[in-house]
Amino acid sequence: MTRPKIFLTRRLPPQTMETLHEQAELKHFDLDRDLSRSELMRGVADVDGLLCLLTDRVDGEVMDAAPQLKVVSNYAVGFNNIEVDAASQRGIVVTNTPGVLTDCTADMAWALLMAASRRVIEGDQLVRSGNWTGWEPLQLLGQEVTGATIGFVGMGRIAKATAKRARAFDMRLLYWNRTRLAPLEEQQLGLEYVDFDKLFGECDFVSVHVALCNATHHLIGARQFESMKPNAILINTARGPVVDESALLWALTQGQIGGAGLDVFENEPDLESELRAMKNVVLAPHLGSATISTRERMGSIAVQNCLAVCRGENATCRVN
Ligand code: DGY
Questions:
Q1: Helix/strand/coil for 289
Q2: Which of 110, 119, 161, 255 gives a 20 to 30 Å CA spacing to 291?
Q3: CATH, range 5-99+292-310
Q4: Could you identify the atom of ligand 1 that is nearest to the CA of residue 97?
C-alpha cells in the first residue's frame, strides 16, 4: 500500500515522529520554529494530509494551494486556527484531539488559581531575591480558596474536570453555558446554573472554558469586570481572545478585580506589556496540555486522524 504524503509543520514528541516516519511519506518542517505563511503554502502543495499546530493559520487560501489535500489534522483540541467552513466547502476533513488533554488542562487551571490566590510567584521571587527576612504575620496575604465561590464560563470537558477539583476544595460552583446541563448532571457535579451576567458578580474566581468562535470573541470585557468583586481572580486556560485583554488590564489597574491567572493571550506570544509588571497576575506560556504523556497522546490521535482520512477511512475526531 502506498504511504500517504503528510506535511507536518513542527517536530512533535518522539513516538509520534516514529509512527509518522513508519506509516507516511513525511515532509517535515525541520527548523524548530513556527513556519511562515509562504513555507506553509509551499509545504501543503503536494500532500494528502496536513498535520498542523494551533499556531498555524489554515484558511481557504492555504487549502487552495493544496489540490490533493484530504485532511487537516490539528494537534490541539481547539481549532479556531482553521477555517472549518472553507475546509467543508472543499471536501477537506478537519480533525482535533479532544479528551486526552482534559485533566492536564484542568490541572493547569487549578495551578494558576492556586498560584494567583496564594501569591506563589511573589513568594518565590522574594525568597530567591535574598530579601526575605523571615516569617511575618502580614506578609503576602492571599485569598482563601477553600469554601470560596467559583464560576465557570462554559461547561465542556475541561470545565467539568476543573469543577471536580473545585469540589474537593468545598467550593460553591456556579456555571454558565450556552446549553444548560441536564438536572441530574448538574446535581452530580454539584453545579448551579446562573445567567451569564449574574455569574460575574457572585464569584471569587471565574474560570474561562469556552471555545473561541465569533460568538465568544471578547465575551468577557469591561462590563463583566465592572460587576466582579474587587478580590475576584480571573483564570483563562481556554483561548486569549475570549477575554478583551485591554479591558482586563484596565480592570486590574483600577482594582476592579483582584488578579488573574493566564495561560492564553489575545495575540500570542505578545501580550499587553503592562501585564508583565503586575504582581497580582500569574502568566504562563500556553502550557495547558504541556505534559509528556498528554503531548504523546495528542500526537497519537492527531496521526491516527490524519492517516485514517488519507486512507479513505473514518477519523475518530472529526470536527466537520
Ligand atoms: C489545545 O489543544 O487547544 C490547547 O490549547 C493546546 O494543547
A1: coil
A2: 119
A3: 3.40.50.720
A4: 2
Q: Is the CB of 302 under 6 A from ligand 1?
A: no
- Measured CA to CA, the distance from residue 166 to residue 39 in angstroms comes to 44
Phi (first) and psi of residue 197, to 5 degrees: -70, -30
CB atoms within 10 A of CB 49: 32
Domain ranges of the chain: 5-99+292-310, 102-283
What's the gap in Å between 22 CA and the centre of ligand 1? 26
Q: What is the mean pLDDT of residues 131-157?
A: 98
pLDDT in tens, 250-306: 999 999 999 999 999 999 999 999 999 999 999 999 999 999 999 999 999 999 999
Write the DSSP symbol of residue 286: S
> Scanning the structure block, which residue is given the C-alpha cell 473545585?
166
CA 76 / ligand 1 centre spacing (Å): 4
Domain 102-283 class, CATH top level: alpha beta
Ligand 1, atom 2, lies closest to the CA of: 76
* Most informative mutation of 54, 81, 295 for ligand 1 (most atoms within 8 A of CB): 54
Residues in the chain: 320
Question: Is 239 part of the annotated catalytic residue set?
Answer: yes
If one counts every other C-beta atom within 10 angstroms of the C-beta of residue 190, the result is 13
CA dist., res. 220 & res. 243, Å (int)? 5
* Binding site membership of 289 for ligand 1 (Cβ less than 6 Å): yes
For residue 174, give the DSSP letter. E
C-alpha to C-alpha distance for 272 and 205, rounded to whole angstroms: 22
Go through 3-21 and write b for each residue having 16 or more CB atoms within 10 A of its CB, e for each that does not: bbebbbbbebbeebbebbe
Pair 263, 112: CB distance under 8 Å: yes
The answer to whether 5-99+292-310 and 102-283 have equal CATH topology is yes
Those residues whose C-beta lies under 8 Å from the C-beta of residue 161, and which sit 6 or more positions away, are: 102, 103, 105, 106
13-26 pLDDT per residue, tens: 999 999 999 999 99
240 pocket-lining for ligand 1 (C-beta < 6 Å): no
